[in-house]
TrEMBL record:
Gene3D superfamilies: Glycosyl hydrolase domain, family 43 (2.115.10.20). This is Extracellular exo-alpha-(1->5)-L-arabinofuranosidase. It comes from Duganella vulcania. Residues 1-17 form the signal peptide. The active site is at D25, E208. Pathway: Glycan metabolism; L-arabinan degradation. The record marks D145 as: Important for catalytic activity, responsible for pKa modulation of the active site Glu and correct orientation of both the proton donor and substrate. Its EC number is 3.2.1.55. It comes from the Bacteria.
Length: 336
């Protein structure tokens, strides 16, 4: 009987194969000996792992909706988008966004916890509410896709943005729960060829998902160009520029300012993987890694977690090996 079952598994490998972690917009943090991945989903879905390969589903961060979500985004449907997680002053800060697809009725919030371990007696998320809101016809930017970066001088900044006039950077207050006053804003990347207009329409400029990673003397601004969430028609891909100052200007390999459409391609996918993007980046045990989602052609373009080693060429630009898309396979364990 055992041999018959084994034969059936060989004949139907897709059925018997381990289930992979299916995520959009993954970010990662480590507490103790455990890694956690947070992603877009109902209430922010998250997973834990001891080895960055075998992942246990841990449920959702928000049991219900953030209290302020419907005020900022009347069409909010319970899916909390594009988190970013950071450890600061002994606590974990989890930033997130609420919106409606293709709209800039959006807001970015932050929730705080002493621990990421849902089995700890100290585990309790305390939502600090909205940090930033975008309003149609008032703002020519979209308050989604937050990423926090420290400037090495004691200050923290939030990069964000999607479509409209592109990516922005705004300084946070000392508590990391609101904007610094007086406010300090910078435009850091755009694909627009026309004057900025506070319109209800997202416009044609396909840019979003900033992530700023410090390496050596440079800040590297990663962004996603193209279209997400269209299965095989997705054109999402990762680009990068760099600056010696966190506020920019960020330029690509050819010296083109990202405010003028610059951005050097880091990875764009292949016949097996489409829609690569919304990446984050981390240094782990002396190595750098890119974390992102990608749609697998052979699995009806299902979005899957990818963790790829990121190396640096002789001129200091990040590179990844596209073959790692097939090499890295996550394994989703049963829920506890």
């Amino acid at each position: 009987m055992k041999s018959a079952v084994f034969a059936l598994c060989l004949a139907a490998a897709s059925v018997c194969a381990a289930k992979e972690v299916s995520v959009h917009d993954p970010v990662m943090a480590k507490e103790g000996d455990t890694w956690y991945v947070f992603s877009t989903g109902p209430g922010i879905t998250f997973y834990s792992s001891k080895n960055m390969k075998d992942w246990t589903p841990e449920g959702r961060v928000f049991k219900g909706d953030p209290a302020w979500a419907k005020r900022a985004a009347p069409t909010f449907d319970g899916h909390v988008w594009a988190p970013d997680v950071h450890f600061h002053n002994g606590k974990y800060y989890l930033y997130y966004s609420v919106s409606g697809f293709g709209k800039n009725t959006s807001g970015i919030g932050v929730t705080v916890n002493k621990t990421l371990n849902p089995r700890s007696p100290d585990y309790r998320w305390e939502d600090k509410g909205m940090v930033l809101q975008s309003v149609p016809l008032r703002d020519d930017w979209n308050a989604i896709d937050p990423n926090i970066v420290e400037d090495g001088k004691g200050g923290a900044w939030m990069a964000f943005g999607s479509f409209w006039s592109g990516l922005k950077l705004v300084k946070l207050n000392a508590d990391w729960t609101g904007l610094a006053e007086p406010q300090e804003w910078h435009a850091i990347a755009s694909r627009s060829r026309a004057p900025s207009v506070a319109d209800k329409s997202a416009g044609p400029d396909e840019i979003e998902a900033p992530f700023i990673f410090k390496k050596g003397d440079f800040y590297y601004l990663f962004a996603s160009f193209g279209l997400c969430c269209r299965k095989g028609d997705s054109t999402y891909h990762v680009v990068v520029g760099r600056s010696r100052d966190v506020t920019g200007p960020y330029v690509d390999r050819k010296g083109v300012d990202m405010m003028k459409g610059g951005g050097s391609v880091v990875i764009a996918g292949d016949k097996d993987w489409k829609g690569l993007g919304h990446n984050s980046a981390y240094t782990i045990d002396g190595k750098d890694y890119m974390v992102l989602h990608a749609y697998e052609t052979a699995d009806n373009y299902l979005q899957k977690l990818k963790i790829m080693e990121m190396k640096w060429d002789a001129t200091g630009w990040p590179t990844v090996d596209a073959a790692d898309l097939n090499r890295y396979r996550s394994n989703q364990l049963p829920s506890p």
